[in-house]
Amino acid sequence: METSNAHRLSGTTDLVAYFCAEYAVDQRLPIYSGGLGVLAGDYLKTASDMGVPLIAVGLLYSEGYFTQRIDAQGQQHADAAPVDPQRAGLTPVLDVLGRDLVLQVPMADHAVKLRLWRKDVGRVPLFLLDADISGNLAEDRAITARLYGTGHDLRLRQEIVLGIGGVRAVRALGLTPSIWHINEGHAAFLILERMRERIAYGYSFDAALEAVASCTVFTTHTPVPAGHDVFDQGQLRHWLGDYAGTLHTTERRLFALGGYDDNSNRFNMTTLAIRGSRFRNGVSRLHRDVAAQMEQIEWPQIPPADNPLTGVTNGVHMPTFLAASWQTQLDRHAEGWQTRVLGDRALRFVDELGDPELSALRADLRATLLAELRARLRTQHLRTGTSLDVIDRMLRTLDAAEQRGAPILGFARRFATYKRATLLLRDTARLHRLLAHAERPALLVFAGKAHPNDGGGQDMIRQLYHCSMRPEFLGRLIVLEGYDLALARLLVQGCDVWLNTPEYPMEASGTSGMKAGANGCVNVSILDGWWAEGYDGRNGFAVPNAEHADAGQRDAAEAVHLFDLLEQQVLPEYYGADGSPPSPAWLRRVRHSVRTIASRFSATRMVSDYIGRMYLPAAEFGRRANAGAGKIATNLARWKNLVRQRWSEVSVEPIATAQPLRVCVHTAGLPPDLLAAEAVIGGDLRLPLRIESHDHDRVYFILDEPVTTPPQELRIFPRHPLLPHPYEMGLMMTVAVPSA
């Protein structure tokens, strides 16, 4: 039933073009660094499962993202992971003569040649741009060498290739998408290239912007400032070169698309993406609110709670991350689960699994993970020169923990400082007491990569490693190198507790906890990102946060909260009153975790949301705005300019009474039918007023609907049938309504 959105889209001639800087679709294709790439990979797999007409565009990083190695001092080393196209399942895209398809993008005073590779992700083709070809300068061949290469100039050049080159690749393939999805701001230059195409057909700059934005979707993924690429105008001036002239506008107007004011020399790619799209979203409910606050300058007169930025919570590709034993259960009880959104009822079978059956299923997953931990620990420490005696002590401690049924606490994700992987190290004495408890011992496993330029993240790995090598922590606190998709799957399937300690509200969504929870691993997390909406009191544990304290006090307070939670609730419940884990109470929590998380946080639900709330409206508005060979977009652009020029002259006469609510608005020459009025009642209820009458410069609105609670305020704002959101213009007059 819930796949109807996919059917509605696939039943049209619409095609979605999905752009992202990284994708995790195959272990043999290491062109991803973390959550963004894993999310994008899950998106493509799910679109394939659901039959969504979608193509994807990215970059082929010939050196891959690094393979992680940790030395005897805990220092992370980044080893190149060159991509072997044949082994990774890539095929070159050929032209009609059977030669490599080659296209060009502008770069400063010359052009860079690009070839195209194809990777089929099920039924979805992923096209990857590659600058490492003969005929390019050495510095140009290096543009696509490394994911997120060092230096702002290199990052800008990569984004020119991805955005401008990506559109040209789509055109060279003969494809005409009707919906363009920018997944994070790295690909936002596709807006300029699509505008250039329309300008070449005679559109004005402003009309081209409206035509392009009407069918563009933008997803922002991070509330961390460093996650938003910002360049200075001099960089753009240099690297875009003559390309800027093809947009037929002033430099000031062009740079304004990514700038906040005339005095700023900065060009923000997120700002460009927002201004060049009409459908924008954060990746969880909480992140929507955080992003709306961050970007409120785009809609200055609109309360952030009401502005056009919406939220589509992330989800995970369950067939990729669910253990085979869980998939067998789903095959038996929820036919077709891979391609449809599972409602809560479809997963009721989980509640019927007996304690012995569920306990055995979880025990098998733990055993598989522990076997891998032993093998990886031995290999890792033999390589670093750890003595055989120390390695033996590690493994004997692991064996004892397995025999006792000790829970595995997992922390595995990208090592960014705001994720606070070292929070429990604030009190190592207490941590030792927790892990080595005589009656309720536990194992603590860490895995994850830090970006090669992130010194803070690498220092966290060093701290954890040094702690893991202390005699009292050997085999109890484990730090694994070589984090990748394969290890991630084992951890989310086999751990018993999934820890997440971000600095609120810096976690936009997170997806590792979704994968773990769907496998029966219980989340213990700060109420940030997806967990703020996923936690229901019975499917995991919430770590109280101290968001109003300063940074040092906050970390100390939240570390205490986490210790208290683990010592007083999590581990006692896991072991139960008789000390025989897992207890019946724990298994009830496991069932509830699987049922609530697998149903609400699957990628099928996510993709269905995008289709219904973003893609289908974008396709419709795109058709309407692009009708009439540019006339409609031109008229819309002119209307917007008129509204901006005259809005300060619009005024409202004093309101006499709230019952019935009548108001007179002086229009300053704006067409009366393109103004709207609404009453706000109780903070949440919005009731539209209708036009009662109007003359040459005044319009009279009335609230027909009787209300028991008088309105608190009246809002006046411009409206237009081609605005996807009523507050799109960011202009609003708010007038208090007198009390009776």
Give me the Rg, rounded: 28 Å
Shape: globular
Oligomeric state, counting identical vs distinct chains: single chain
Share of residues in strands: 15-25%
Class of secondary structure makeup: alpha/beta
**Tell me about the biggest sheet?**
10 strands, mixed
Could you please describe the fold and organization of this structure?
Helix content is 39%, strand content 18%. It is an alpha/beta fold and 740 residues long. Helix 4 crosses helix 5 (190-200), helix 5 (190-200) crosses helix 6 (205-213) and helix 18 (485-494) packs across helix 19 (512-518). The protein is built from 24 helices and 28 strands.
Task: Provide a brief overview of the structure.
With 740 residues, the protein is of the alpha/beta class.
Primary descriptors:
740 residues, alpha/beta, ten-stranded mixed sheet, six-stranded parallel sheet, 24 helices, 39% helix
Would you spell out the secondary-structure blueprint of this structure?
Blueprint: H1 4-10, E1 16-19, H2 35-50, E2 54-59, E3 67-70, E4 76-79, E5 91-92, E6 102-107, E7 110-121, E8 124-130, H3 138-141, H4 152-172, E9 179-183, H5 190-200, H6 205-213, E10 216-219, E11 230-232, H7 233-240, H8 251-256, E12 266-268, H9 269-275, E13 279-282, H10 285-294, E14 310-311, H11 318-321, H12 324-333, H13 349-352, H14 355-384, H15 388-404, E15 408-412, H16 428-435, E16 443-447, H17 455-468, E17 477-480, H18 485-494, E18 497-500, H19 512-518, E19 522-526, H20 531-534, E20 540-543, H21 551-575, H22 584-600, H23 603-625, H24 631-646, E21 651-652, E22 662-666, E23 675-681, E24 685-688, E25 690-694, E26 698-702, E27 713-718, E28 733-736
Helix pairs in contact: 1-23, 2-23, 4-5, 4-7, 5-6, 6-24, 14-15, 14-18, 18-19, 19-22
